[in-house]
Amino acid sequence: MDACTASVWPRLEPFLLGALQVAPPSKLSMHYLRKMACYVRTREGCFPRLGWHMWRHIACGKLQLAEELAWLYFETFDLLTPRSPEEKLEWAEALSQSPSPRELDRQRSKLYVDTLQFLLFLYLQQLNRVSLRTSLIGEEWPSPRARSPSSSSEREAKTSSSNKNWDDQAHLTFMQTHLFELLELLVEPGELSGSGQALRDSQLSAEAVQALSLLLEGSASRGRTVHPFHRLLGRAPLQAQAGYSKLSRSYSLQQLQNWLRQTLTLNPFGMSTCLRSGKKLAWALQVEGAMKRAKIARNTHMAPPGSRVVLMSQVYKQTLAKDSEKLAGANVKLHRCSEAFIYLLSPLRSVTLDKCRNSTVVLGPVETSVHVQSCENVRLVCVAGRLAIGASSRCTVHALTPTRPLLLPGNTALTLGPFHTHYPTLEDHMASVGLAVVPNLWDQPLLYSPDGPAPDPSCYRILTPEEFCTLVVPFQMEGDTCEVPGGLPPAYQQAVEARAQRVQEWQRTVKDAHLNKEQRRQFQALVEQRFHQWLLETGKRQELDSLLPPTIGQPNPTDHSQSTCSSKPSLQHQKDQMSQQAAGRMPTVC
User: Fold this and answer.
1) Higher pLDDT among residues 295 and 179, named by residue
2) What pTM was estimated for this model as a whole?
3) How many CA atoms are closer than 13 Å to the CA of 463, on its beta-carbon side?
């Protein structure tokens, strides 16, 4: 009988959703985290669960972090904590009923996190720290002498993973490089030397091994079932290999470290594998004149929850709209999409927009975070647990979010506006991921700059009511939502009503002119001429034209749903409807 073996790999979500995509504060270095690890083990009320008040005391009093930054890390970790949609909605309701700072602080004091896992989460922020040493040898920054990857899939993976949060190879390298320090944070103070470092004969408790399940998972003997790390080590043969002692009910630090180094491998559900062997989807059209072919791949048919990935790259000059089950609960990455109109109308786990340009993206409710990185002139419409924007310019974001939008360094000319659209199943989708209409902090951004100079507040502005227009999703679907969830802020609602009033007044003016048949014909021709001129000048013509696929009624041999919503709308009707909306006969399309 073969000996029991195991494969262990870094989990996707802590790296993708937990590590902020920016260099961390210097006070989150290993030196200070060692001190924090000893402190929380020896202070009452800090272990095994750490509350907000004690973390604020440590972060602000000991680590000298700003309180808003302390809450950012605490809140980000809480986003990763598994909770039912009902629990999330109850928490949102409690926050919405806490209008004063004192009541809000009292509500936050009810929030607790796993202490050991929170320590690992804080250390994980080192993922995006730029190392001077690795920069000099060309690992952090591109090198013209670097050898090109050997295969096309490797080239795609390298191109698509410019940030480490999506790069499964970077996750593996991080775990291999920092494994000892991660384990050291979990060692009890009595097992440490006088300088706070782990000894060769140090032991790790079962609770410490369970905390590692935040970062690691795996399978046994090439099995397909994925287990959290601590449950994987519940198998007696693997316990022995990892240095478990039944007498002390603990693991040898040295032996566990050696065993992990032998078993750590690349995540079989990561981006590299998805690009190489995931299911390809023919959702996007291949546009004539495009430099590269559009690629859409997914692993949702075989990956466990939390590892489901959909990658969309090079979508160019077209409308792509989906409300597919293949998207539900997936982590989605839109990479280098240009001059496109993308509607992903399903409940999603997370979304990343990377290096997209001149595009409109409308999302279904995103349970955790939407991250916009290195984008230009992108219009984003979303309901999300967290919104983060970095190194982007001239982007407009209409958001409904219970957390403060996080503005990372490198942004210019951002515009923030209220969420301003709906589709028939939106409220059902929001309930399924635990997102409510309140609190909504879309206009209270947090500018992240922990160690550097104070951030420039001129990098963003709030959309004025005079500029505001609602957005109409141009597809027929079935459902009960018929208005923007939660309504519009009063000033913006008044602006919409005033615009509608002007349209009605114009229609009365035309009616009272009592034009004869020939005058009406000439007037209609003039209006249509000016309308089509406006379409060309604003680029709306492309948006309308892209609603019609080149051939309607011809099934796609790979995927039966076309480049529209799966509810199969009448495209010509929708094109006429959008034309009427833009002309002012219906609510104006933004």
Assistant:
1) 179
2) 0.88
3) 26
